[in-house]
Amino acid sequence: MKRLLLTLGAAATLLTASAQKPETHVYLCFGQSNMEGNAKIEDVDRQNIDPRFTMMAAVDFPQMKRKMGKTYPAVPPLCRENTGLTPVDYFGRTMVENLPQNVSICVINVAIGGCDIKAFMKDSIASYCTKCPDWMVGMLKAYDNNPYKRLVDMAKIAQKQGGVIKGILLHQGETNTGQEAWLGMVKSVYDDLMKDLNLNPDQVPLLAGEVVNSDRGGVCAAHNPIVNRLPEVIKNAHAISSSECPENFDQLHFNAEGYRILGRRYAFKMLQLQGIKPKDDSNPRANNLVSPLLHMTNFFFDRAQNKMVFDKDKAKLRSVTFNVFAPNAKQVEFSSQFTEGLKPMVRNSRGVWSITLDAPKPDIYPYNFIVDGVSISDPANMYTFPNENFKASLLEVPDPEMPYTVRDVPHGRVTYMEYKSNELGVYRPLIVYTPAEYEQNPNKQYPVFYLVSGTTDTEETWYKVGKFNTILDNLIADGKAQPMIVVLPYGNMLHGTPNPTTMAAVPMYQQFARVLTSEIMPYIERNFRTKNDRDHRAIAGFSRGGGQSLYTAFSNTDKFANVASFSAYLTPEAMDRDFTALLTKENMQKTFKVLWFGVGSSDFLYQNVKTHREYFDKRGIQYKYKETDGGHTWMNARNYLTDVYQLLFK
Question: Active-site residue 336, yes or no?
Answer without folding.
Answer: no
